[in-house]
Amino acid sequence: MLFQVYGDTAIYQWIGWILVFCCLIGANELARRTKTGGVIAFLIVPAILTIYFITIYVAAAMGAEWALSNPTYVHMTSWFHYAKLYAATAGCIGFMALKYKWGKIGKSEWFKCFPFVIVAINILIAVASDFESAIRAWGTTWVSTEGVTLYGGWHNVFNGVAGLINIACMTGWFGIYVSKKKQDMLWPDMTWVFIVAYDIWNFCYTYNCLPTHSWYCGLALLLAPTVANFFWNKGGWIQNRANTLAIWCMFAQVFPMFQDESKFAVQSVNNPNVNLTVSIIALVANVLALGYIMYRAKKQHVNPWLQEVFKGTRDYEQAIARQEVAA
């Protein structure tokens, strides 16, 4: 068992997982299908929440009891949560700029590499967090600012390296397109090879560094965009991922008790041997993914980062078929 899902609360834990999974899929559909939905989700709501967060911290600094006891202030104090929220939201905004061709930047060729840059930044944030645990508590434990006990050791190093390799697995940086209905920003070369390697690595990251949240952000949150990509939004995985990640971070930041202390809360087994096993799997998966990419690139005599290497594969062709055709 990876998680402590048993006993009287198991039914609530499974219901919570299903609700989070379904709500994330639904929220992504609302945000991606219309410009209004995207603007509300990734411009208006984050602006309101920023004001809310600043108000809480200013009031807490002044000693206001309501702020000092606010769940966001008490349970979501880590730098990681805020970095992830705003990095994911920045990705969503940039993807909309590309999708709707906003201004000169949205129409420019050079800005097509933005998805690679923002995804790399998001991965590096998690890699830094993994290495932080290794440095703080090698072979022992440390308690985060949120009161979570974390183990440090080789599992952090292995998964941190897997994350760095995962960045190199993003191919065809400039192969960014818009779907026919302008609902999606497409990255056809980001096929199942990268998606599977990323999902395994990111699950391992949450398992290592967010053991009290991994049931939701390590499983439900990762599966929601992956399922959408495989069944009805081919080529739109990175947009799905950014949308669902930003939406989840907003929810978790405002309602942290859902994951931390409610009937829906789920703890991982938090065993260093289990962490090590998962981390080795993540590292192997990413090494294999990069090896396959290098094999295809060499066979086709192309630069895998500046050119697309998965042309001709089923995933790529299904995604590129959704591309908007110029009139």
From TrEMBL:
<feature type="transmembrane region" description="Helical">
    <location>
        <begin position="38"/>
        <end position="59"/>
    </location>
</feature>
<feature type="transmembrane region" description="Helical">
    <location>
        <begin position="157"/>
        <end position="178"/>
    </location>
</feature>
<feature type="transmembrane region" description="Helical">
    <location>
        <begin position="79"/>
        <end position="98"/>
    </location>
</feature>
<dbReference type="Pfam" id="PF18948">
    <property type="entry name" value="DUF5692"/>
</dbReference>
<keyword id="KW-1133">Transmembrane helix</keyword>
<feature type="transmembrane region" description="Helical">
    <location>
        <begin position="274"/>
        <end position="295"/>
    </location>
</feature>
<protein>
    <submittedName>
        <fullName>Uncharacterized protein</fullName>
    </submittedName>
</protein>
<dbReference type="InterPro" id="IPR043747">
    <property type="entry name" value="DUF5692"/>
</dbReference>
<keyword id="KW-0812">Transmembrane</keyword>
<feature type="transmembrane region" description="Helical">
    <location>
        <begin position="12"/>
        <end position="31"/>
    </location>
</feature>
<keyword id="KW-0472">Membrane</keyword>
<feature type="transmembrane region" description="Helical">
    <location>
        <begin position="110"/>
        <end position="128"/>
    </location>
</feature>
